[in-house]
Amino acid sequence: MLLRPSPLLRPGPLLRLLSTSPPPPSQAASLSLDLPSLRNTFLGLRHGNSEANQLGVVSSSPAVATVSHGLSPLGVSQATASALAFAGQVKLERYSENVRIVTSDFLRARATADVLFSKYSNSDVDILTCNLVDDERLRERFFGELDGGPDDRYQEVWDLDEKDAGHTEMGVESVNSVLARTTELVRELDEAEEGRCYVLVAHGDVLQILQTAFKGIGGERHRSLQHLETAEIREFHMLPVARRW
Predict the structure, then answer these.
(1) Residue 220: predicted pLDDT
(2) Distance CA 180, CA 43 (A)
(3) CA distance 44 to 39
(4) pLDDT tens, 19-33?
(5) Which domains does the chain have, with CATH numbers?
(6) DSSP secondary structure string, the chain?
(7) Can you give the C-alpha Rg of the chain in angstroms?
(8) Is the pTM of this model over 0.90?
(9) pLDDT (tens digit, 9 = 90+) per residue, 77-104?
(10) Rounded Cα distance, 55 and 133, in Å
(11) Other beta carbons less than 10 A from residue 241's beta carbon
(12) Residue 34 has pLDDT above 90, yes or no
């Protein structure tokens, strides 16, 4: 993880870890959370509307998406609204003031996390602590041959997902691979500390797939769960129904 003390300080080229494919999950990584209960609170925040969304293109290559396709003006507004809503929930003691924001290092997610960090830190909430870190395990699912092309082809991949969570057709990262890396992160965070509120800032498919682990259902069913809209923040927990606000 890369500690980022300020949302105003953009990482330079030497701090960006670029690659053309997602990092391989640990060999020991499980496809479930494998935890009896959670010691911390976890929320998923999908990035705000991005330049890639505006262009209608798939942007899943780290070499491109870590340096381009940031938030659109609409995305900044969406992220701001979610940040203020989150601060309000903390003020109402809905969530712990001990907050850690963990974000994908893709530009659109990182920019969303920066907005959340800035608005939360500058709110009138009595903050215990708040910091922000990057983690590659929250990167967007790699979409192989679809990367850089029109985003109206996602359904082709999702139809294949439903039949086989391990498929890599068209060079796409498998659902199981996404599950392995994201559940590894959640287990690591939950075992390290207690009483924190973790906000995981990531991408549509990544958060959709991660939800299946919290709900204890197979990854191939990720599209059966309620979709996260851009800049939507949702609590993840191991109960039948996830709270949404």
Answers:
(1) 96
(2) 18
(3) 16
(4) 333 444 433 345 677
(5) 40-236 (3.40.50.1240)
(6) -EEES-TTS---GGG----SSPPPPPTT--SS---SS-SSEEEEEEPPPBHHHHHTB----HHHHTTS--B-HHHHHHHHHHHHHHHHHHHTTSS-SEEEEEE-SSHHHHHHHHHHHHHHHTSSS--SEEEEEE-GGGSPPP-GGGTTSBGGGHHHHHHHHHH-TT--GGGPPPHHHHHHHHHHHHHHHHHH-SS-EEEEEE-HHHHHHHHHHHHT--GGGGGGSPPPPTT-EEEE-SSSS--B-
(7) 17
(8) no
(9) 999 999 999 988 988 888 888 899 999 9
(10) 28
(11) 8
(12) no
**Burial call 109-128: b when 16+ CB within 10 Å, e when fewer:** bbbbbbbbbbbbbebebeee
Location of structure tokens 């330049």: 51
